[in-house]
Amino acid sequence: MFNEEECLRLGELIEKIVKSEGLIKNQISDGDIIISFMTNASEQLNWAKYYQKFYYKFSEYSTERTDCLLLTGFYPEIYYEILNFVNDKCYTKEASYRGDSFTEYSTNNMIVQVYDNRPGLTLLDKENKTIVFLTTLEDKHFIQEPARLIREIFNRENENIGAYQFHGGAVTIQNNGILICGEKGAGKTTTVTGLIEDGRTDFVANDRVLLSIKENKTMIKGIPFAVAIRLGTCYNSPYLRKWLEPTAEPILGFRHSNLKISDIESFSDVERWNIKQFIELTPEELILSYNTQVKSTAQLKMIIFPEVNKDYKNPYIDKPSKEWAKSVLFRECFTIDDDSYNDRFGLLKEITKEGLENTFDTLLNNVSIYSIKYSNIHSTLGDIYQLILDEIKQPNLDIL
Q1: Cα(339)–Cα(179) distance, rounded to whole angstroms?
Q2: pLDDT tens across 318-373, in order?
Q3: Do the domain assignments include residue 265?
Q4: How many domains, the chain?
Q5: Strand pairing of 93-97 and 100-106?
């Protein structure tokens, strides 16, 4: 769609931003991948640091090495020139990403995505691995969007060096990583918060976890997502209940909930646990609630498949078959084979579920797997914690 001359012009506009005055330059690393992040809006950098500081290290810019360059901020002249640039072009496709719809204009090495329902555009220069996000002050997402882009780049680049992304949560007990995996509604977040509430568990992540096998060690790495907690879980936790008070002001605000604490008090135990609404907390708000800490990476020692059901009177642990465990892992692992997987910039190389068979065989031979069934009405995870502790103390698990 763009000819050679037009691609050169887009490249010149990117170079103009790089050389502009007032650019704040940072280097961001997760231990494996390095992103150079430049912006002329300090609010964007401050938000990314606040939201992602437990997972990524922010430091002064260095020219030694970078895996991707991310440019963001306010450049009205360049922003409107690019908009005019694509205005008379035929779009390549219409798509969406995490609730945002956009129109894409692309050629082999250049992609321009213009948001449909809000100001802003992103430009990807594939050849130079550079992503540009430009917007206006009218865009209500202008502060948070760079943090989302940073997270997406880290996810794709980690996948490109052999990591797999799972739908699940993770904690550490005595520095041993525990992946909590299962279908939506199985009780993953309830299990994560329940274990942390015990007081001897550190938080790694909720909702998304990266897993990789390096030098015969299986490692997990947290991904900074908001922690969505159902209101029933909040109400029944002395640590989280404060977020339901009228005066509570979570950084991310309430989402999908117009219920007051007085409304929830009138419900039965079963009704409370069936409430679908939830609130969202940042990782910092979560760990401050429990007076715990974040461990962004850990060596994986155990995978737990929870099943939370009000009919279980007593908690118990079962050892599922490896074939059953493998089927759940296949289902909860994100690859480009999944319709819901959205690599909007095409950063991900060829990683499909076809090659996962051997990886999962190796994984399940090196970690313990358990199915934990309990009722969040009739029991607490204090009992389950001791069962887990007994298991990770077994000599064959090689405590760190």
Answers
A1: 24
A2: 889 999 999 999 999 887 777 667 777 777 666 666 678 888 888 998 898 999 88
A3: no
A4: 2
A5: antiparallel
